[in-house]
Amino acid sequence: MKEKTKDIIIAFDGHSSCGKSTVAKAVAKELNYTFIDSGAMYRAITYLALEQKLINGKKIDIANLKTALNSVQIKFIKNKRTEKQETWLNGKNIEREIRGIKVSDSVSYISELDFVREKLVALQQEMGVNKKIVMDGRDIGTVVFPDAELKFFMTASADVRAQRRYKELTEKGEKVTFEEIKQNIEKRDYIDQNRDISPLKKADDAILLDNSNLTREEQLDWVMEKILSYRF
Ligand code: DC
Prior knowledge:
It is a single chain. 50% of the residues lie in helices and 18% in strands. It has 232 residues and is of the alpha/beta class. A hairpin with a 6-residue loop joins strand 5 and strand 6. It starts with 8 loop residues before the first strand and ends with a helix. The site of 2'-deoxycytidine-5'-monophosphate has 14 residues, from helix 2, helix 5 and helix 9.
């Protein structure tokens, strides 16, 4: 007889654009768990700040952003046609907008703010009260769920990541250059790793996965093997 499996929290942290969401999403599907893209939440707040003209370069209107955060509502809703989970902010589908270069260029400045992180970490912790979630981000295994049962830390070379992202964006019709993408990735790595609050770093108990030379299938097999050996 099959043993009963434990309900757990699985954290995927790591560098920008190294395919965390793709693996995390696939894992959630295999386990019938909920996938949560915490980066989409930081992107949603960045979109809100841009839309309400509360950010101009590195300059942020802190007082008004704090007020806007008091009533912010972020939801992940499955698109019935594509079956893909999409991000909604205050009742509006913003999935497409938050993936563009404009939001990508400003998101690091918003995610450095202590009050933004406090708000989003609290929302993320609420989403994990019943476990059975796979969450990806930068501080999931270190800050949001330091007691997560399984933690992965993913990385890949900046060139490989920029190439993948360039392909993804140009296929969507965005006018971008490879250099611009690579610079954005390197800038985000730097800010993510050097910010004062919750900098990106591997939790001591996280399993390292460098996927520079792995296909999606190879990664998923590798990760699933670790998960299944933990859960049974
Ligand atoms: O995963 P992503 O690239 O979509 O995340 C967008 C930005 O949000 C990224 O530059 C860093 C930030 N982020 C964060 O600070 N903490 C998280 N848990 C997730 C994302």
